[in-house]
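Revision sheet: structure tokens.
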Amino acid sequence: MNFSDRESENRNIIWLASYPKSGNTWFRIFLSNLLAGKNAEADINSLHSTPIASCRTMFENALGVESSSFSHDEIDLMRPEFYRSIAFETAPGEKTWHKIHDAFTKNLNGEWIFPPEIAFCALYFLRNPMDVAVSAANHFACSIDKSIANMNNPQFALAASQHTLPAQLRQILLTWSGHVRSWIDSPVRVLVVRYEDMKFDTFNTFRKAVEFIGLDKSGEEIKDAIRKSSFDVLQKQEIRNGFKEKSPKAELFFRKGKVGDWHNHLNASQVDALINCHSELMKLFGYLENGKPTY
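Predicted:
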């Protein structure tokens, strides 16, 4: 079915967007607990549906194609149609949440890969890039120098191999700053949610996000979902049952979750490499003041 000429009845997609290792998964688990409203904590391996936007199987099923027959660029030409199909198949008045690590970019036809007209809004989860560098190095089982090189590389993308067929479609990330800028300057209504605020002002930060995405939940419901989504609860679940979203190369997905852990891992030249590349956005979001890190 061709959806390109059919208007969506609703702006019903909510993007849960982030550069990897920035708090996206924590919020999704919180959301699952909030929507479930049960006594027990949500199972981290059976969350409320928040599929990743780059899921290859969903793409193939929606468009009836074999993605292995197409290049990355050709798939990007088809992805807007994929997301329009999701919006069209969502019941009027309902919302659908999607995790996304892609930067907000256009394809070779100059079309937004994520059509603005079908988006209700986006939450953009932001974290100090120096903590991201350490956490991403652990997640992808690479050196910190490699992690920083990726964050400073405007050509960086996930699942970009030409020789294998990963479970996810290619996701263009740009640099860390480019990724942030792509979303905050996008034609979609966006609320920036800092990881540090999630840690230090948890209730107010989560309540603001819940209100922004249009959920009618009480303060007590939000507090209960926060309790059920604490880092200790998540880490215990992962140690007991594993976590299917963990990279096979990483020891744990919920490793530390600390603010400022970069102090224990980055040397002066690594700190300079990140600041030199990302100082403008770091200043804008309170991670850099008078040339010095604030966290």
